[in-house]
Design brief:
The chain has six helices and 36 strands. The protein is mainly β. It has three domains: 275 residues; 106 residues, no CATH class; 76 residues. It is elongated, with a radius of gyration of 27 Å.
Length: 493
Amino acid sequence: MARDTQAGEQEEESSLLDRRSYLKATGTALVGAVAGAGVTASTAGATPVSGNWEIRNRYIETGSNELGIGCAVTDPDGEGVIEHVYIRSTASSDKPAIWVDPKKHVGHLTIKNVHIEGHADNAIYAELHEPWGAGGTLTIEDCYLHDNTRGNLRVNGGTEVRNTHIHNTGENFPTRGYLCAGHFSYYEGGGEINVRHCQIDIDGSNVKNGSNHLALMTRGSTSAYGDYGSNIPTVTVSNSQVAGEIDAHEGNITLQNSGRNPTIDPPKGVPMTPDEAENGTTSATGPTWSEVGGGSGSSETETSESDQQGTVLELVASADAQNAAYEFTVEGGVTKHTVDDQIGAEGNDSITDNGDGTVTVTGASGNGYGDAYVVEGTVTAMQLDAAKWTLRYGGEQTSVGDLTDSGSGSSDLPNMLVIDGTDKPNTASAYQFAVSGNAAKNDSLGSINPADEVGDGTITGRVIGGKDAYRFSGEITDFTVDGPVAVELDSQS
């Protein structure tokens, strides 16, 4: 991918240096030709290139070829903060909204509750990892980036992105929508980029003048800038939803417990208008990082070891499972719980009160990660593909049948029926049968998945290279199957 020469970092670096005397003279942390009228006390005396500084509650409006904020934290132990800022380009500015000087930034920068719109040369430009950069770090949290080209986030190693929503509306900029990348890097520099609980929707269908659908990219332009081999960042995307093309160099982008169906809902705290930016208010309603990922706070529905009253239920997906779904019902109450950094219910998992003394829990996981809940009551039903899950209840491994007491083999359900499709691993076989008594799913001899349903004496399901098993009472009164399966009946009645 050829890079437009207007994105040259030397030009941006020198222009920023030329303007630093203006910053020192005014005592403001703002770099931009047109700024909002409100100047808050929190920015007074701060400078964007120093050991510690803050920029808060600002509306910054840029025109053609104008930079929004240029900055660096020059103290290795220093902190910079850009919070509750709205940066909007009115002329598709061919400069970044936020540019972090890679040669001077050695501390840590936090960009939080920032809204960036309409910049043609990256929303946040921060390629900081050595050898290109000086090795400073960056956290981007609870931000909303839309209609920005080249890259909404152009970053490399040492960056963590949390609960940030990225997309194109199709009703504004970019004028050059063909390079709408969520993340990409041209410069040499390894390290790790962690993307957690983000919503990225760059599918190309809603961008003026076309798009190449890029949502995530790490390869860069090897023809123009050489092949950096393995010295480029690795990207781990966890608990996120990503729509669009993923272009990874040698497979260095990994999705964990993530899907492809983003929901764009700017996090609470993001200013949606210029007035909100300067008044310190927000009309955004989306969940925050502290609500979906733990963050600096905790969810109202999450419990810790010290306050839990029930029994911990863990659902751990197998290493090869991708976005495996589950659903279970509890007569009583359920709260989300975290066991460790790999097992814990999060923002994409839901608990619904049914209004009849029961709650229904739905979620998904994969790649060896899992979810956990504290159950105060009885698990009455569960639907999942048992071949993809390990269940633990109170620290002990269990099964769906044992957990719901539907697979005990008691005299209430003395008969067993197994539908076996393992001889045809790539063929779907549908079945239906009816019994004169009662029936229940059983996972001790077969997998259970949401396509299997037990009605009032009628059971329907499907196998694709696996097994389904049921216990029942009475007699089988009807049975039909469409596909190559073996049927095993163990009748005690």
